[in-house]
Amino acid sequence: MPFDHRAALKQIPAQPGVYRMLDAEGGVLYVGKAKDLKRRVSSYFTRGLNARLVVMVSQIADIQVTVTRTEGEALLLENNLIKAHKPRFNVLLRDDKSYPYIRLSAGDNFPGLYFYRGARRSRTDKYFGPYPSAWATRETLQLLQKLFPVRQCEDTFYATRTRPCLQYQIKRCTAPCVGYISPKDYAEDVAHSIKFLEGRTDEVIAALGARMERAAEDLEFERAARLRDQIATLRRIQQKQYVAGDGGDLDIVAAAEAGGTVCVQVFFIRAGRNLGNKAFFPQVPDASGPESVLSAFLAQFYADKEIPPEILVSVEPEEREFLEAAFSEQQGRRVGIKHRLRGDRARWLAMAADNAEVALQSRLGSHAGYARRLEALRDALDLDELPARMECFDISHTRGELTVASCVVFDAEGPRKSDYRRFNIEGITPGDDYAAMEQALSRRYKRVQQGEVPMPDLLFIDGGKGQLGAVREVLAELGVTGLQLVGVAKGPDRKAGAEQLWLPERRQPIIPGPDSPALHLVQQIRDEAHRFAITGHRQRRDKARRTSVLEGIPGVGPKRRQSLLKAFGGLRGLTRAAPEDIARVDGISAELARRIHDAVRKEST
After folding, report:
1. Which residues are CB-neighbours of 22 under 8 A, at least 6 positions away?
2. 13-58, pLDDT tens digit by residue?
3. Is the peptide bond preceding residue 430 cis, with omega within 30 degrees of 0?
4. Hey, is 436 helix, strand or coil?
């Protein structure tokens, strides 16, 4: 029996709320919101529709509505229903669970700055953000360490220190844990950090300038030089990050579409500073226009987030006035959505649109399959966001000799081979993989803490809980925090596809299964680390075989080594030669030939 929309419309009130289009089996085809339910639902049967909506309307068997008191309640209910039912005619946004902040702890003479994600429960702590990604947050924390060395170690680590840690040695902390700085001087660094994070950089520069002049007057030239360098760094950062002339908070949202895929790019501007940007790829039904896509994106994206006073958009979204009213109700203040822009704001929007196009083309290119595996990894590990940078370490040696550790790096595009590194391991007990891993991690993450290398989001270790625990201790001693460790252990039968993923905070491993795209990505990263380590070990071993034996023989210098290797076609030929044959080489006496023969034969056995 055909659906009688006229009879259904008579039952729908002219009030705000949410409507659900159902098919003959009771499945939810579409969920929508409206300020006037009757007018909005009627429009599906009285106006010209695009191809997508024509198909949807032809499948409607029932319409259900829920009346709400306000637009804000309707927006919240719509998002809950979309998440619950995932209707195939809705735009579906797979957003990150939460966005990171920088948290300044309170209630202590020496508060710390931390990477933070989650609900802002403390009323005394200060929070700065949100930042678009963990990477952007950590980059800001690293900048702060260089400018104002406020501690970033965990309280448990801080409370047990009896001597300064690495952060003090590399001038990223003033060692309040052992009393190397007074509460007054420390409070000054904290105050400058707060002003920097609030976008009041000019005030910080002015205060540092006054201190620099006083230091110069007191003939403290080294101190004056340090303050001068701080000011110069602040000015460079200000030029790089400064966006909004009025120092305000706003988001810039632009969409691009090609090949049935949509990219929405969001730039986060807080206190006039560009905190970074993030690309989203919502699931979009066919024939969806940019106005409807952007409207659905904004509704879902801001459903559970703090919303800035202004949102700049590339096209006017459907139901703009409804969204503004709902967002204003949600925030308790006016929120404006603007799309007709001039001057600087038009240029910012063009920048966001260009970034959306670039991200979309990358998505449509050869990395589409990789992107899907990356999303599967996020879900398997229950991460808050897609990992932007991943590192994996492995160890290779031959019976404990000539040990080499490898570090490979993967980012959102795949392997980042320019960032790969190898470490020749020395001074450990042969075959002690734990000690080798400790040395490699220490060397790598000292550079990370010094700001020479970006901090990864994920660190993969080839091994189970034991190896993971040892790595955790090494990183704790280095003061590395906010890094997710993952141990990749072979299953009970040590077969490919049965790998177990161990996380420090879980008692049981995650077992993705042989068909899991997430496991395929982990295997790719682990195997690449293994390949890179083996290649490095073989190169080191081959080099040792070519040169080390001869270099250790007194009387055999570079010219004689060259003559010997040339005469016998390499070390292998020299190994087969008799002492008399070796003595025929120019400059080699019978006694030296005997010593060379004994040394190379001993090395080959």
Report:
1. 28, 29, 60, 61, 62, 63, 64
2. 999 999 999 998 899 999 999 989 999 999 888 877 777 788 888 8
3. no
4. helix
